[in-house]
């Protein structure tokens, strides 16, 4: 009879071994499915960015290879808090045919547009003055192959060459090439693999330990009967391979369902196509093979005692105490992580940072048992209640087995503390924007087009029955010294009355009395500073009689910018850069945006809420990923804690049976089991929470040197971790009653 036949025979006759094998297969399936999902995320982002390359959002510079066939401009527009990608094109006369990107049915002519289905529905649902007049007459619909995600709002707008904006690119074809994966999601996927894979493997190990004592005695008996170490190893390998292999195949089979669920989770503004989650076959095979191999290897390595001395396995042995040097694993891993995050800018990669994070996660398996043993020693020395003494003796005798129930919880608390350290800090960084109040819309232009945009926008506003008026705000500089060694301030050229109404500088009508002035955070000495149309342009002295007034702006980010009344500009000085600015109300904001979008001819119409859109979208993505990750880690941790507690009861079935036969109440044994599960988890989770905060600070230091923002929510993972430990320990009472109901002689 070969090893596989023996494994099948054992599974057939031993119910508890079957239960352990089933739970092991489920754990391996969960681990395989999670890793396959997380590993495919970078490829998914790359796939959808590949479809959107033609939209040109990241296209920089002029394409000089080949004949110039079209003028191209890409910008973002907004409607009711949603981002619209606007692509403006104009074929060059006599340029010949232009290759269309996948999903683009046709090139729109002047005054026409091809829109995505989601944008088409918006056009039908709202008046043209609010949205439709920005793009022209719809003549076609973009297919899925041209969209980043199904809900994306995209408009391909046609023009004549002379109607295109000044910054339009002359191209030989639509932008193309090879897209890159999302760097942030790639980082999060690696963190997720590290943080979620460990609890999954802990669940596998806990499932395998359900029948550890019985299997150890069985293998020892076979060993004493004359089986060689190789035969015993082959038996265990066959038994573990069977359950782990089935679990890996099951994980591969459920991965499409996980991908389908993931396609509904928004990222960067939208969901996914099911085809985005395509993992290369070679990587898929590697993952499906590697996880069972790790499980089998762990099972084989656990045979050392049975192979060396089977009498110890059958008759018991005295376990060696854990050495204090285990505590060095955490500071050593922390030092490696610290070196990695402080040198990441010089090395240019995050490989060492991920390695340091993995070492920190792995160090918990070394430090955790020592902490568990120390907690058990405290029980034995201080408490005298029977349940506390039983719990303390268990923690002292088998700290590794006792820690196993807390291992997944520790990782979940670590991940939660790390995430809740970073999120409030990222949220505190959100903000900023241009010099204008939140309700203002603006379009950047130049001296040649700004007047035309103002005239056409005001005519459209009048046609739409609006009272708002657009104004052109010039940009000049107050400089000191000679180019190129100059320093000075940027200044906006606008009347004091417009500045009161349109800007965030805090000007009041009282500031406008007294004639032309220069307003700034501090009084600028016009005897030292001169006006220039550009930073390196010719400097001209201010008009005599121009006053200077210090006005503290409402926001600190405006302190370096000045306000200059047009009457204060020297004669002959004309700004080269302008911003067309228009006030809005909540009721007419989209109408005003439409009035500006038409004459802007594809130039971006900006606003403060639009400026914050990407920040808020990214923060929303991070919050969503954090919640999903913590829920998954918490469920895995709770399952592993419950299985580990049940396994602890099964391992000590003889001991508990003898104690109950001697008259020990089940409630005392249950209390002892809850104490040995919950109290070490409390100590370990507090430590994991502190380490998670420190790791979060280290990761944030790679992004920004400013201080971290600490939130009371940092305590939530520790509280939840203890709660999960208690829930996991709640299975001890049913397990003990099961032991009580079965004859002790069965063992």
Automatic annotation (TrEMBL):
The chain crosses the membrane at residues 21-44, 183-208, 244-265, 277-303, 324-344, 350-380, 401-423, 627-650, 677-701, 713-736. This is ABC3 transporter permease C-terminal domain-containing protein. It comes from the Bacteria. It is a multi-pass membrane protein. InterPro entries: ABC3_permease_C, Macrolide_Exporter_MacB. Belongs to the ABC-4 integral membrane protein family. It holds the Pfam family FtsX. Keywords: Cell membrane, Membrane, Transmembrane, Transmembrane helix. Residues 192-309, 630-737 form the ABC3 transporter permease C-terminal domain. It is found in: Cell membrane.
């Amino acid at each position: 009879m070969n090893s596989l036949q023996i494994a099948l025979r054992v599974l057939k006759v031993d119910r508890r071994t079957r239960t352990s094998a089933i739970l092991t297969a489920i754990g391996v399936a969960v681990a395989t499915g999670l890793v396959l999902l997380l590993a495919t995320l970078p490829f998914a982002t790359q796939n959808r960015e590949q479809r959107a390359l033609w939209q040109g959002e990241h296209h920089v510079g002029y394409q000089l290879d080949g004949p110039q066939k079209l003028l191209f401009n890409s910008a973002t527009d907004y409607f009711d808090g949603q981002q619209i990608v606007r692509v403006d094109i104009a074929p060059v006369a006599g340029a010949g045919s232009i290759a269309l990107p996948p999903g683009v049915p046709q090139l729109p002519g002047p005054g026409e547009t091809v829109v995505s289905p989601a944008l088409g529905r918006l056009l039908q649902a709202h008046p043209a003055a609010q949205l439709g007049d920005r793009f022209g007459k719809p003549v076609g619909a973009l297919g899925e192959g041209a969209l980043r995600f199904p809900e994306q709002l995209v408009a391909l707008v046609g023009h004549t060459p002379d109607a295109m904006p000044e910054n339009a690119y002359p191209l030989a074809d639509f932008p193309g090439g090879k897209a890159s994966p999302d760097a942030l999601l790639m980082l999060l996927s690696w963190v997720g693999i590290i943080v979620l894979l460990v609890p999954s493997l802990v669940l596998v190990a806990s499932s395998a330990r359900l029948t550890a004592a019985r299997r150890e005695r069985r293998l020892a008996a076979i060993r004493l009967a004359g089986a060689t170490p190789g035969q015993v190893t082959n038996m265990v390998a066959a038994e573990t391979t069977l359950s782990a292999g089935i679990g890996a195949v099951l994980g591969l089979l459920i991965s499409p369902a996980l991908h389908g669920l993931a396609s509904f989770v928004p990222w960067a503004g939208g969901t996914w196509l099911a085809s985005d989650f395509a993992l290369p076959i070679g990587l898929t095979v590697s993952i499906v093979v590697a996880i069972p191999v790790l499980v089998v290897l762990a099972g084989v390595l656990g045979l050392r005692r049975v192979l060396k001395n089977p009498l110890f396995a059958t008759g018991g042995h005295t376990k060696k105490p854990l050495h204090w040097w285990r505590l060095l694993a955490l500071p050593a891993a922390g030092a490696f992580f610290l070196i990695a995050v402080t040198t990441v800018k010089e090395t240019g990669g995050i490989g060492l940072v991920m390695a340091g994070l993995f070492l920190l996660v792995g160090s918990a398996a070394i430090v955790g048992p020592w902490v568990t043993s120390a907690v058990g020693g405290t029980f034995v020395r201080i408490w005298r209640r029977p349940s506390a003494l039983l719990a303390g003796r268990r923690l002292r005798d088998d700290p590794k087995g006792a820690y196993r129930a807390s291992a997944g919880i520790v990782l979940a608390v670590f991940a939660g503390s790390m995430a809740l350290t970073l999120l409030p800090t990222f949220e505190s960084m959100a903000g900023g924007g241009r010099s204008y109040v939140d309700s203002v819309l603006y379009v950047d232009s130049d001296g040649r087009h700004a007047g035309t945009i103002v005239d056409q926008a005001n005519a459209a506003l009048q046609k739409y029955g609006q009272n708002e008026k657009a104004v052109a705000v010039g940009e000049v500089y107050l400089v000191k010294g000679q180019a190129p060694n100059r320093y000075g301030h940027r200044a906006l050229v606008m009347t004091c009355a417009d500045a009161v109404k349109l800007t965030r500088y805090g000007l009041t009508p009282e500031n406008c009395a007294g004639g032309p002035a220069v307003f700034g955070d501090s009084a600028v000495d016009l005897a030292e500073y001169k006006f220039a149309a550009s930073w390196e342009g010719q400097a001209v002295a201010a008009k005599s009689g121009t006053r200077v007034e210090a006005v503290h702006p409402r926001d600190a980010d405006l302190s370096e910018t000045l306000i200059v009344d047009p009457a204060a500009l020297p004669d002959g000085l004309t700004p080269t850069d302008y911003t067309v600015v228009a006030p809005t109300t909540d009721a007419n904001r989209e109408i005003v945006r439409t009035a500006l979008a038409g004459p802007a001819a594809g130039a971006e119409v900006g606003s403060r809420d639009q400026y914050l859109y990407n920040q808020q979208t990214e923060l929303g993505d991070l919050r969503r990923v954090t919640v999903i990750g913590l829920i998954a880690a918490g469920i895995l941790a709770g399952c592993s804690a419950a299985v580990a507690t049940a396994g602890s009861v099964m391992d000590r079935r003889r001991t508990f049976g003898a104690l109950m036969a001697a008259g020990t109440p089940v409630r005392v044994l249950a209390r002892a089991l809850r104490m040995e599960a919950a109290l070490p988890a409390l100590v370990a989770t507090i430590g994991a929470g502190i380490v998670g905060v420190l790791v979060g600070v280290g990761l944030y230091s790679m992004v920004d040197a400013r201080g971290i923002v600490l939130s009371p929510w940092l305590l939530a993972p520790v509280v939840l971790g203890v709660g999960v430990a208690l829930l996991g320990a709640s299975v001890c009472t049913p397990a003990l009653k099961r032991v009580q109901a079965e004859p002790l002689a069965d063992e």
